[in-house]
Amino acid sequence: MNIRKISRTKNSIHSGFTLMEVMLALSLTALLLGLLSTGVFVVADDWNRNNDVFDQSLDESLIVLQIDRALHGAFPHSFTNRETLSRQIYFKGEDDALSWVTTVSPQRTPGLTVWELSYTENQGVVLKTVPAFTDDPSLRLEEAEGLLVLPDHELSFSYLYEDLDESLVWTEEWEGEERLGLPLAVYVKLSDVNDVDENPKEIVARIRNNTHRSIRPNVNDFITL
Questions:
Q1: Beta strands in the chain (DSSP E)
Q2: C-beta of residue 124 within 8 angstroms of C-beta of residue 150
Q3: How far is CA 146 from the centre of its chain?
Q4: For every one of its 225 residues, what pLDDT tens digit does the chain have, with 9 covering 90 and above?
Q5: Contact 144/132 with Cβ under 8 angstroms?
Q6: Distance (Å, rounded) from C-alpha 100 to C-alpha 177?
């Protein structure tokens, strides 16, 4: 009996861990957990960074899509000039700014809305929107507060019209009050000033409703373009 007890005692001693082995195991476990947590932090940081880039790209794409829809919905809105008492068409197109009346509203409210896109130096593309009533909306646009929709972006416009020889020509300016109508299409180029690869966003919006029902454009005006 005594020999068996001594044998079991020896086996139990050899089957345990020494203090050094326990400390070594804890050290290795702590090292592995530290490496794992560092890897998880790097992966999470990359994920958040990629998500931020994706969200920014998605926001820019949605804004470009809204601008495209608003240009396709351009409307030959007329108003009465108080000085001449003549009816005029509102559309002010320049090479770096454009304001027009459209059937598309950012708030999805019924009725016509005036949009104005322009570039503010060291900021980007600014959008203004006001309701389109029966008057000239220029004063309301001046008093409206602009919204920075595309930071660090520049923009340029071109306007398509049909010349007297029925050829299609692009011009950098279009004044609705003088032409008494809208262009056939609008080309918009949006360039990111921080994009070293120079990959601009482009919009070519055809304007189907470019003439007013009762106000006919003056054909002689197109000769001076």
A1: 78-80, 87-89, 91-93, 97-102, 113-120, 124-131, 147-151, 153-162, 168-171, 174-175, 185-192, 201-206
A2: yes
A3: 15
A4: 554 554 555 555 555 567 777 677 777 787 777 766 665 555 445 445 444 444 455 688 889 999 999 999 999 999 988 888 888 999 999 999 999 999 998 766 778 999 999 999 889 999 999 999 888 999 999 999 999 999 999 999 999 999 888 899 999 999 998 999 999 999 999 999 887 667 889 999 999 988 888 777 655 444 444
A5: no
A6: 12
Residue 41: both structure tokens together: 């932090």
Distance CA 99, CA 102 (A): 10
pTM of the model: 0.70
- What is the β-pairing status of strands 185-192 and 153-162? antiparallel
What's the one-letter identity of residue 62?
L
